[in-house]
Amino acid sequence: MEEYTMQLAELHQNNTSTNVKYRFSIDALVGASQMDNRWRDTWEELLASTLKTRTASGPPDLP
Q: Per-residue pLDDT for the chain (63 aa), expressed as one digit of tens each?
């Protein structure tokens, strides 16, 4: 697992492409809310948007 996380960190740190955008490949729901799936300039923006949607939708309904 440690090797994987090191490789993932290196991938993000060494990205030199200037034409990269981030989004999920399909439209999705986060809880009961439609996820904002617009293209983002950074993966951090995508993560923040996803977390914001998740927080706004409240806790999941449990059986």
A: 889 998 888 877 776 666 778 887 788 777 777 777 888 888 888 888 888 876 765 665 655
pTM beyond cutoff 0.70: no
Give the residue extent of every domain in the chain.
Answer: 29-56
Find where tokens 């955008």 sit.
21
CA-CA distances (angstroms) from residue 13 to 3, 17, 32, 42, 63?
Answer: 15, 11, 34, 12, 42
Provide the 3-class DSSP secondary structure of residue 40.
strand
| Cα 25 from Cα 6, distance rounded (Å) | 25
CA atoms of 38 and 50, how far apart (whole Å): 11
Q: Tokens 């993560």 belong to which residue? A: 47
